[in-house]
Amino acid sequence: MRFTRRFTRIFIILCLIAVFVTTPILLFSSHRLIHLGSDASKEFVGDLSILKHRIEVQALNAVQQEEVENLKEPILDVYRDGNQISAVSLYTIDKNDSLGQPKNVSLAGNNVTTHDTKKESQQSLPEETLATREKALEKPRPKEVQHSQNVQSHPRRALDERVKEIKDQLIRAKAFLNFAPAGSNSNFVKEIKLRIKDLERAAGEVSKDSDLSRRAIQKMKAMSATLSKASRLFPDCSAMVKKLRAMTYNAEEQLRTQKNQASFLENLAGRTTPKGLHCLSMRLTTEYFALQSEEQILPNQHKFQNPDLHHFAVFSDNVLACSAVVNSTVSTARAPEKIVFHIVTDSLNLPAMTMWFLSNPPGKATIQIQSIDMFDWSPNKDTLQKQESLDPRYTSPLNHLRFYLPNIFPSLNKIVLLDHDVVVKRDLSGLWHINMKGKVNGAVETCLEGEPSFRRMDMLINFTDPMVATKFDVKSCTWAFGMNLFDLQEWRKRNLTGLYHNYLELGSNRPLMKAGTLPIGWMTFYKHTRAIDRRWHVLGLGYDSGVKLNEIEQAAVIHYDGVLKPWLEIGLQKLKPYWKKHVRYEHPFMQQCNIHG
């Protein structure tokens, strides 16, 4: 009896221990099963929604769309970089394709080419890893592609293949993301969003393959696997083409807008006087009026009209620019005592211009400063304003004063006209020994195709006008202003100033030419221009023209034609030193006005 009670007590104790041990395990397992069932149902619903979307897309593709039979989509290149093959290229469109689908669509990074629209919905984008991508690059390509590769001579093009592949992967991933049903939160959507975020963070702003980290390459491989999964979920290539086309159009519109804004701001900066130059003019003007009347006179006035000397003319209202032209010319001259500079400005800047050269005399050279308001026959402002131009410099009377050189200097036989945005690098006395052969204007030609300075007559002159088409040859060679040698005696004989007036009046009544002095100069000096050696005058330093360094070094005069003037902050930094070396930055007024080199 006692043994039975003892056995019963031990059994009850063991049962209680078993209950206490197994109960928590059963409760935890049931809780996990409940959550697992909910997650599985969500994933199933998400994948089911994608599957439903695929079925709907395929059903829509099977419907014959009669209303768009004749619709043709434009031939478009997506992501084209110079001679590089597009990341996504849409080549030719089959004329027999009623839906206007691309005949040959190549997706770089997926290596997929669709040739038949009937097979598009049945084909899936094959998996591609980085290794298969590199092998695919070694395979023979169509002749068009091979030709493009042969043209490439820069080694960077081949080395940046992985960077381009990263860009391709991001573009395709975002396109696939847009294919998911609205509001979908499936594992695929979460995964592709994560891959995009990781790859963008790993690649950053890298532009060369050598700068890519190991982590970025790993993220590329992970993205490649995700894109392969996406290609199986969305095998409809035509939908991908349309999505990429829409993305490309939006990107091109944004790029066009940004370029227009950048061009507008660049031209606005080119027309604006910097604060430092305005300050310098004010300080010089104040100092000028503090002088006595006899102290305001420039020396060597007896040389102003001496025809045996070398005379240079500059028409400008920019003190700093004129000082650079004068200093560079005098510093490179073999006989600076023979040089006479004639600077014509407006009445507002006359005191400042005079004061600068009174306090900074150009060595042995002679300076004459005049105001345009001193001339009764100066260009008519009303006539010039009729020329339509957003840039007031093109219609400035000071800019058109060059057509009145014989009137301004009645006793001179020859004169060299320099623009205020040039720098002289060689002695210019040889210009006076050039045989003009009866011509009026000695200038460098700009009709050589392929050169940065290339210009055609019909670029600035309206050859649809009967008078222009009859009188001028559209194929005749053009030339440049900036450094010109003028034979004033021949000019007077031919009365070219009167001819300029005639063209100016005709242009105010009908559109004969664009605004500015160059097109009307081509018309005025037509068949009166003598071509001189190109080394006398090199253009293209005022914009990104790609002018060669050896051409600059060999030039006698370099010209900052364009908006990017050397005294502006937007000027090309690599070309500014040629100009800065002739500016006196140590002058007290320059320091006070924060004009530094």
UniProtKB/TrEMBL annotation:
GO CC annotations on file: Golgi membrane
Region (Disordered), start-end ranges: 106-157
Record keyword Aminoacyl-tRNA synthetase present: no
Membrane topology per record: Single-pass type II membrane protein
Composition skew (Basic and acidic residues), residue ranges: 130-146
Listed name of the protein: Hexosyltransferase
Organism encoding this protein: Solanum bulbocastanum (Wild potato)
Keywords: Cell wall biogenesis/degradation, Glycoprotein, Glycosyltransferase, Golgi apparatus, Membrane, Signal-anchor, Transferase, Transmembrane, Transmembrane helix
Ranges that cross the membrane: 7-28
GO biological process, one term: cell wall organization
Compartments reported by the entry: Golgi apparatus membrane
Enzyme class: transferase
InterPro entries noted in UniProt: GAUT, Glyco_trans_8, Nucleotide-diphossugar_trans
Top-level division of the source organism's lineage: Eukaryota
Family named by the database record: Belongs to the glycosyltransferase 8 family.
Gene3D superfamilies in the cross-refs: Spore Coat Polysaccharide Biosynthesis Protein SpsA, Chain A
Pathway annotation from the record: Glycan metabolism; pectin biosynthesis
